[in-house]
Amino acid sequence: MSSPSMAKLKVAGTWAGVLQVEPENWTVLMLREEIAKRSNMGTESINLIFAGKVLKDCTGEEKNSLSQLGIKNNSKILACLVSVEEGKTLKNELLADDERNRRLARIKAAVTALSKRHADGALPIEDFDIELEDQSGKKVHFSETDRQAIMTGLMLHTSGKRFIRKQMFSDALEVLTMGEEAFSLCNPKSIELVDNIPILQIDMVWCYFMLQDIAWLSVAGLRLEKAREGLERAHGKDSSRFRLLQAGCSSELALYLRLELLEGVVAYHSGQFDKSRKFLTSAQAKFFQLQVPDEALSVVMSIGFGEQDAKRALRMSNQDVQSAVNFLVLEREKREQKREDDICRRKEIKEQKRYGVTPLKKAVDLQKLAELVSIGFEKELAAEALRKNENGTEEALDDLTNPEVNTELQRAIESRKRKRQQRATDATVEQLVSMGFERSRVIGAVQAGGSLEQVMHQLLTHPRADTVAVADDTSNAHDFSGNNNASTDLNANDNACAPDSNPTNPAVENLSPGTLGIDNSNEGPSAEQRDLEMEDEIADELTRSDALSDYNIDVTQEGDAINEYLALLDSGGGNGKASSSQLPH
């Protein structure tokens, strides 16, 4: 008699018999390997079928046990021989699934890391900030919890739209679902006037439609209801608030066209044919309204704008040439202003990194710093006072005007300068030693100063005796033991870094960690393990989008689908069973 944790499986096919397993601990792969061994075959040569379905090996981080798949005592398993080609196909499918799951996990991890690092007031590792703006380009502020959730949701939504453009609708649906989960963590009051969530719902239903999956019919209907309610809250009745913000432009037409098409499709497959015709007819009217006349397009392009930009502007301006030109000029001005703002912000981030972070890992507030400097305090000292006091102006003033505390601030700054110089020099030595140079020669060359190229040239061309002599002459200046142990005696203020100064050692000035690509984790934000490739993909996608990107839809596919469903209604095909939610692919 088997123990309670054991189960007997009845196997037929390439091998017949009873197999004892532990359903809670065994996976499909383990079962396949055991049956393949008893069948004297390779693992890839057999398929396992249970309850009419082919069992697939778990992929990625999945650990589905047999019990989770419904396999229990006395379950029947059929082992079938597969052809070599079929086995290769199955293996390729599993590898593709594994790769897909890994990529989705990377996207989620990268987005989560970015949203945490770019929390309000935090000092990012990168030279850019991710900030939340409204449709007019103004920065919007939320609580830290809501900000992180919204930022995560927006980045996942952006990644999902990238998959939609690539026609990878299953992947898009996975990422959009993650985005929906992120938005659900926000306070509903904080986001009730934000239209990103309704647009995400529409994008999810568009994926259902393009995947031709009617199984999602009831869910699609609920999502579209939420989307329409959300858009009305955000845009106002008949988009009145939205058009006021957009100076009368009809930028939202394409989005509402897609919404009405999908509402018509859901109504059609639900047997509500009159309702379906109403939605589809309205969508068709918007489709005709969005068609760009060749003459208007030619006029706008003759002024110097590209075809895609001209089409976009005309669609969003009711085909009015002057309004389209004004729109494009304004967009160009916004881009120029954004570029200037980005350059300014990068400079600010660089400066903030010199001052380090507060005990709660926030950046020094440059506006408050400017206020202190304007009343006569030395900038470096004022920055340290703000850093120490979590950007509290009053507390910083108290410290700056207290002679004893002021002296302590100066000592802390000088101490960190020395430690930063020592860390930079130690890192330089280690970097050069790792290239294969002898440590004593490296120490001498670094002590002699000069740029990285000059030090490398000295190490490669000067006789060994010269560099050793230099090392001997300067050995008393610093301790170059080669052990980068500066962090072992860091004090409580070492989560900050001092502003730039003129180092006493020219090697420190010219051979900084930044020059050699070394990240000094003791200065500014911590350098945790990062997926740089995925983070760069997400950041690049964010820079490509603007406040109206969600409304810039090429409605060609929508137009074809509208005609298809109206034809079905006209032909009397409205029996509610049509499965032709197909679009030309």
UniProtKB/TrEMBL annotation:
Origin: domain of life: Eukaryota
Gene Ontology biological process: regulation of ubiquitin-dependent protein catabolic process
Region (Disordered): 474-531
GO function term, MF aspect, one: polyubiquitin modification-dependent protein binding
Ranges annotated as biased composition (Polar residues): 474-494
Domain Ubiquitin-like: 27-77
InterPro entries, A to Z: NUB1 (IPR039749), UBA (IPR015940), UBA-like_sf (IPR009060), Ubiquitin-like_dom (IPR000626), Ubiquitin-like_domsf (IPR029071)
Domain UBA as annotated: residue spans: 291-331, 363-403, 419-462
Protein name: NEDD8 ultimate buster 1-like
